[in-house]
Amino acid sequence: MKRSLDTPTGTVTLSEEGGALVALEWGGGFEDSSDLLREAERQIAAYFAGELRAFELSVSVRGSQFQQDVCAVMGQIPFGETVTYGEIAKQLGVPAQAVGQACGGNPLPLVIPCHRVLGAQGLGGFSGGVGVETKVWLLKHEGAAGLLI
């Protein structure tokens, strides 16, 4: 099932399989509905309204164990805080470049906050929305914009 919703960063589509969210992609055109998709839509709207700091949704990260591990670490980064690819790499005992690739492969950006992961010397990339501009918007929304000045 897929459901699209408008956000300040563009239209996003949520995908549900087996009772869990499995993807969030920018783009739209889907109107399926389920309890989980409606709840995800409600929580995303609350996040953008400044009323929600942490998502509480059933998610399933499809991918390698490494992808799942990186997503699990990203999911623990608090609202308005950031970490570097290197910090996650050190925690997992892997190269920072591998963490960057796993961040880029995050199937649920926003819900699993890969926008909160930065490079050692700059923003790093972002695969959602219109790229780095969307990452900057999300960081400003969360009050982490002081890092950008």
From TrEMBL:
The keyword Endoplasmic reticulum does not apply. It comes from the Bacteria. The active site is at C114 (nucleophile). GO terms for cellular component: cytoplasm. It catalyses: a 4-O-methyl-thymidine in DNA + L-cysteinyl-[protein] = a thymidine in DNA + S-methyl-L-cysteinyl-[protein]; a 6-O-methyl-2'-deoxyguanosine in DNA + L-cysteinyl-[protein] = S-methyl-L-cysteinyl-[protein] + a 2'-deoxyguanosine in DNA. It is found in: Cytoplasm. SUPFAM superfamilies: Methylated DNA-protein cysteine methyltransferase domain, Methylated DNA-protein cysteine methyltransferase, C-terminal domain. Residues 4-60 form the Methylguanine DNA methyltransferase ribonuclease-like domain. Pfam families: DNA_binding_1, Methyltransf_1N. CDD domains: ATase. This enzyme catalyzes only one turnover and therefore is not strictly catalytic. According to one definition, an enzyme is a biocatalyst that acts repeatedly and over many reaction cycles. This is Methylated-DNA--protein-cysteine methyltransferase. The lineage of its organism: Bacteria, Pseudomonadati, Pseudomonadota, Alphaproteobacteria, Rhodobacterales.
